[in-house]
Structure formats: C-alpha cells, structure tokens
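Dear Dr. H.,

I hope your travels went smoothly. While you were away I took the liberty of generating a structure for the chain from your last submission, since the lab meeting agenda had it listed for discussion. I wanted you to have the full record in hand beforehand rather than looking at slides cold. The sequence, exactly as received, is reproduced here:
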Amino acid sequence: MGDGTLPPEVERGAVRRITVVGEDVLGRRCRPVTQEHFGTPELDRLIDDMFATNHVAHGAAIAANQVDVDLQLFVYDMEDDWGERHVGHICNPVLDEEPLATRRLVEELEGCLSVPGPYKPVARADHAIVRGQDRHGAPLVVEGRGYFARCLQHETDHLYGRLYLDRLGKRERRDALREMAELRDGVVARRAAMAERLGKG
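The corresponding predicted structure, in token form, is as follows:
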C-alpha cells in the first residue's frame, strides 16, 4: 500500500476464495447490479469482502466474479504511475471507447488474481474512462491514465467474461497456463499467510 493505511472496507471485510481460470463464472457476462441490490447491507458486505480479498492477494483490483459473485462490480486500491493512490468501487461499468485515431496503446506486463503467477505483455489504451454507478445507485465516472487505465480496462473485461489470457496469442496463452500450474500453489499459500496475519484466515 502506498501510504500504509488500510481502507475501512479491508478492516470490516472477510476474505473470500478467488476463482481461477476455467471456472464458469469467469467466462460469461455478469448480471447488472439493480435496484434490488443498491443500498443494501448485502452489497456493502460484498464490497468490504472484495477489498479484503484483494488486499490479502496483493492485488490492484478485483471483480465480483473473481469472488464467485455474478454481478457487474469491481473494487480497486492501487497506485498509478505517478504515485497517486486510487481507492474505490464501481457498479455496471461501461468503458468509453476512444476513437482509434487518438487512442494510444501501450504494451506492458499484466497479471490476474484468477491466473495466479504469470505476467504477460498486453496492449491497452493508456487512458480510460468508465461510467457506472456507486453502491447507492448514483452515477459515477472514473478516469485513469497509465497503470490505473490498464486496471480499469482489465476489470471491466472481467465483467464481460474476458480474461487477459483472451487477449494473448495461442502460444502466449499456453505458456501462461503452464506457468500458472507451476506457480499457483506458492501464490495461494502466500495469500493464506497474509490472511492469517490480518486475522482473516
């Protein structure tokens, strides 16, 4: 964490199991968050749990289907390229598509909590805007550049059933899955140890 402080959501939340590539919930479009969800204790608890789960996994962000919940929601807690910390959540995010003529793609290494271990180069736009709603249903716009823009695109992809693996060529995807098979147990053990240290094991 950049400034070392834990968001209150992490303090309140419980750690949930993180889904792994191949599970059905990761491969389909999630259901929208609707009026029946907004402003409820259940949605608040889910957001808290997602923050806690993301924290123990040393993630930048996590989507609801990564904790096996079929809803269009992600949370984030990360530093961008300039050291600014971004903490928040968004429901029903829709990515603004910039015109191809003005879009600047940057290829950088990308990983995923649901693909534990490997990092592979993925081309993403260096600027992103997502529009959605907050936990109460109020309109919300989140804008990011650099690494934060990459994060917003990666998480929005999740909610449409896409992993970063789906943006790789066949050979790169095969290599990533092989590396995951080798590294997964160690990654999962480190997450469990972190949860124990926080008293959330």
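Two observations you may find useful: The radius of gyration is 16 Å. Residues 36 and 157 are 24 Å apart (CA to CA).

With kind regards,
E. W.
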